[in-house]
Amino acid sequence: MSPMLIAKLRNAAQQATFGIEALEELNRAERRAQLEPEVCLAAVQQDGHAIQLFTEAQRTPEVCLAAVQQNGFAVWNLTKSQRTPEVCLAAVQENGQAVLNLTKSQRTPEVCMAAVQCNGYAIHCLTDEQRTPEVSLAAVQKYRRALVHLTAQDVSHEGAAGDQMREAILSFWEEYEQFLPNSKRQELAQALLACSEAAPADREHASCRP
Questions:
Q1: Which of 44, 48, 112, 145 could anchor a disulfide with 71, C-beta 3.0 to 4.6 Å?
Q2: Does residue 20 carry a pLDDT above 70?
Q3: pTM above threshold 0.70
């Protein structure tokens, strides 16, 4: 707890109107600052968001990692330096949509893949650049309704992963197309049709995008 904050609280405590409330807050803050490492660790293992109550010194790498393992969205409470690659990966492995709280540089290919493997719906959080053929395939394999968040570009990827993704989509198209808005159904159908009509020999040299 910073000396400035302590000074402000003590000053407020001297005011008759807010004396009791300020003193109680001061006591709570000082008690939190004295928590032992094992107590901090146990706290975030119960509720990851508890880390927002800890001081910088109490936020050890072990505590930060445990916090996001309990609740991926707890990564939102961490500073840039506390968001190590290991912590970012653990956050999306616990909750794929925690990738929303990560910066572009923190969204490594491994993190993006882990996010959709945890929750296919997380693909809607990713940029076009982050939606590689492998990531798009993993998303629909995990959650078929993630199809609604794919674009013609996503289903038109070339290479083995692109082929596998289209095969996967076609295997459940009849069952899940009913969940797609008309415009999205038309967009994806045209892209899938264009790819199916492309000559296999030309796929390495020409795009199958409509």
A1: 48
A2: no
A3: yes
